[in-house]
Design a protein that fits this description.
alpha/beta, DNA Primase, Chain A, 4-stranded parallel beta sheet, 10 helices
Length: 282
């Protein structure tokens, strides 16, 4: 967990567990009654010599001489967790990692996770703010070629799905348009998925641009921005990477960039090469 606070909303946990309580009980090691109605109470605090605990499927409640519990309370009793912990256990047992959210994203946490200096991130305009739900988040500015901020994306969690959000109805842009001069000087650019990979390459003094998500590749827009460059696309070993590779190939097959506003054809991309990544752990 790396010190992050994980949580599942009550609504998500209730919806996920509805009708699947027996799976939870099985995973907790609560024996089935095997034709009988009751089992010995599975709670540590109740020494039950005559079976007096039962799970009522219809009422979705556990009844015993000692207590009357819903599935959340049963998990708390048996697993020794609090209500928040019980909700996380439900997501884990039912294999729903998508329901597990993380408590915000701080600049220090992000810097540590990405192994990037805080000062470097501040230099890119990254700022820690407080998000809609009162949790820390990072505002990551997207700048145009002249360095003006044209969009801001919000990093709301260190990990998990949907860790970065665009503003509602915001236009998508490449991340790092203000740094393409470096790419032109080098003759190449590395296209990566997301902001942090681009930041990492910049920190290593490599020219890069980030896509706002693997599906954020827009051939019309990107062909013009990356004109005359040799383009390397970093393909991560996951579904998103596969999508990105597909889009990268489509871009490579475009003989020239889209006509500009004046009708003048912009230069074509020199070549696109896919750099396959292997799963990697620090
Ligand atoms: Zn009991």
């Amino acid at each position: 967990m790396n010190g992050e606070l994980e949580f599942v909303t009550t609504a998500d946990a209730k919806a996920a567990v509805a009708g699947r309580e027996r799976e939870i009980l099985d995973a907790l090691g609560v024996p089935r009654p095997n034709g009988k109605t009751h089992i010995c109470c599975p709670y540590a605090g109740h020494t039950d010599k005559h079976p007096s605990w039962r799970w009522d499927e219809k009422k979705c409640m556990a009844f015993c001489m000692c207590s009357k519990h819903d599935i959340f309370a049963v998990i708390q009793e048996i697993a020794g967790v609090d209500f928040a912990g019980a909700k996380v256990r439900i997501a884990e047992i039912l294999r729903r990692p998508d329901l597990i959210r993380r408590e915000g994203c701080t600049l220090l946490g992000y810097a540590e996770r990405k192994r990037l200096p805080v000062d470097f991130l501040l230099g890119l305009g990254v700022r820690e703010t407080i998000g809609k739900f009162g949790k820390p988040q990072l505002d990551i500015p997207y700048r145009n070629a002249s360095g003006e901020t044209i969009a801001v994306r919000h990093r709301i969690a260190l990990s998990g799905k949907k860790h970065t959000l665009s503003e509602k109805n915001a236009r998508q842009h490449l991340y790092g348009l203000d740094r393409l001069a470096e790419a032109r000087a080098a003759g190449y650019v590395v296209v990566v998925d997301g902001e942090s990979d681009a930041q990492t390459l910049w920190h290593a003094r490599r020219p890069a641009v980030g896509l706002p998500g693997a599906t954020g590749w827009n051939a019309t827009r990107d062909a013009a921005a990356l004109a005359e460059l040799m383009v390397f696309v970093v393909v991560e070993p996951d579904e998103a990477g596969a999508k990105l590779a597909q889009r990268g190939r489509a871009l490579a097959n475009r003989p020239a960039g889209a006509p500009g506003a004046t009708g003048r054809r912009q230069g074509s991309i020199r070549a696109v090469a896919a750099l396959q990544c292997r799963p990697y752990r620090l």
